[in-house]
Amino acid sequence: MKNEKRNNANLSTEISEQIKESIINKDLDVGSRLPSELELAEQFNVGRSTIREALKRLAAQSLIRTQRGASGGAFINHIKFEDAHEQQVTTSILLLSMNNVKFETACEARFALERACAKFVAQRRTNTDILAIEKEILTQGQSKLTDEEFCASDIRLHRILVDCAKNPILSYQLAGAVEAMQPLMNMITYTVRSREKIILFHQSIIRSIKNRDAEGINFGLSNLEDYTKTLGQNILASYK
Amino acid sequence: MKNEKRNNANLSTEISEQIKESIINKDLDVGSRLPSELELAEQFNVGRSTIREALKRLAAQSLIRTQRGASGGAFINHIKFEDAHEQQVTTSILLLSMNNVKFETACEARFALERACAKFVAQRRTNTDILAIEKEILTQGQSKLTDEEFCASDIRLHRILVDCAKNPILSYQLAGAVEAMQPLMNMITYTVRSREKIILFHQSIIRSIKNRDAEGINFGLSNLEDYTKTLGQNILASYK
DNA sequence: ATGTTTTTAAATGTCTGACAAATGAAAAAT
DNA sequence: ATTTTTCATTTGTCAGACATTTAAAAACAT
């Protein structure tokens, strides 16, 4: 960690980039402690506040965590899937809303990715998974649910479905696509009629999951995709 | 943007979360300017350095950008797919390396996601796309390439393939999965024999793309997946 | 000797005030 | 009318101070 090239940008960015590189290149081990802010300030020949701003940048990406007190400091974080999940979803939501992505486009991506799991879901689903999905389907049948609650349960169901593939990478990647759709899906009005149809699709899908029938899962998902797109037609060109 | 609930955590985190919420909820429009650091400090009743640390956190997630000078300040960023891409890849790389994800698991996810694009690639590929892929295949035939260069071209080829689907969400999501694999793939030694086989697979895939044959693309990708997994066998249990 | 309390030192968190540097706009000079 | 200069605003950086947290060391009591 030298204090070379401080060319163009501001110091705190430069420094945070350098430390980030060191973490990616494994020059710094997970769990190890960075020098104290005062030491870093001396090493990089900058003020303490500059170091602090650099560290805050890294903390925002959960690359480090800080602890106060005697043997405190900044520690290289072990990034877990859950940590990354939230940020992934937030970013995806903003990407959808800021880039005028059509409902149809987002829908297409979401279901295409879900279908990518079908093969593994059929192979690896456990009975616990099935119970969890069936519970959501039951929830969705309750007529007292608000549109938001119905939608939330729908998203949960699809999350469970994806997790059935038992591949953490798939789960992580798809979380962005599936959960980022929630704001869009929340704009749909779920009539009694449409809820019934969606639940029928879900029941068809869970049957295929039970039977370990990948083709059937795909078919059910495709049908659901088509129906979701028609429901989304009223959300015209783009999501504002 | 009030200064309510400053419960548990430290102030700068609290404040950055509040502003982040305002951005997600569209209380603050894209492109609009936040109050100056001094004004924010007054509003939140904290020091300027606290505000600055909060803003640095947001900047690290490219939620805002800052400009110096007279009519400068912090502006709500329009997050584009390219902006999010780099962070997505970095995070994915760290997730893979820090969570002892098996090569096989990462490989499975990567190819499953790529296959999810096949249908759209077959429908939407342009002649320009095909030329770009063929160029990479030619590159890969040059024997003078180092393993790293061969691998880089391989990754580029698959990026182009994914982009053929003309769905920015898919491209963005898959970039993480595909490019994050690069450090793992770089550990593979590409013998003359294995390069030849990979190129054969690529040629089979590009043929199917030309013929708009989704099934064929899937088949080619699956074959390539199997072969990649055998190549990766020497990378034993996990990526260290 | 052992357990408890107090003290201490180290580290981050926060505030204040100062100055540097960039930048756009207004004012002045040409 | 055009160019130059000045000026005000705002972020970037630094330095010093104090608050707060925390673990370990020291002091104390049992």
Secondary-structure element series of chain A: HHHEEHHHHHHHH
**What is the CATH fold-level name of the largest domain in chain A?**
Four Helix Bundle (Hemerythrin (Met), subunit A)
Structural class designation of chain A = mainly alpha
Which chain pair has the greatest contact?
Answer: A-B, 56 and 57 residues
Q: In angstroms, what separates the terminal alpha carbons of chain A? A: 45 Å
**Mean pLDDT figure of chain A:** 91
Adjacency order of strands in the biggest sheet of chain A:
1-2
Largest sheet of chain A: 2 strands, antiparallel
Number of domains of chain A: 2
Instruction: Give the CA-based shape of chain A.
Output: elongated
What percentage of residues of chain A falls in helices of 4 or more residues?
A: 55-70%
The CATH architecture assignment of the largest domain in chain A turns out to be Up-down Bundle
The number of helical runs of chain A is: 11
**What do we call the CATH homologous superfamily of the largest domain in chain A?**
GntR ligand-binding domain-like
Determine and state the CATH class of the largest domain in chain A: Mainly Alpha
